[in-house]
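Lab notebook: predicted structure, single chain.

Context: the supervisor wants predicted structures on file for every construct in the current expression panel, including those that have not yet been purified. This is the next one on the list. No modifications to the sequence; it matches the entry in the shared construct table.
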Amino acid sequence: MRICVYCASSASCDPRYHQAARALGTLLATAQCTVVYGGGGVGSMGALA
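Prediction complete. Output recorded below exactly as produced.
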């Protein structure tokens, strides 16, 4: 399954958003889902990846 996630690329967001994005990324990977996102490597986007 492919899932699209929209999130921030800013590193200045509240760290709780980065933690939540990382947890979501782990959950989706465990479920063998493919994440479609903006491709950034910083901020919540990077944490998700």
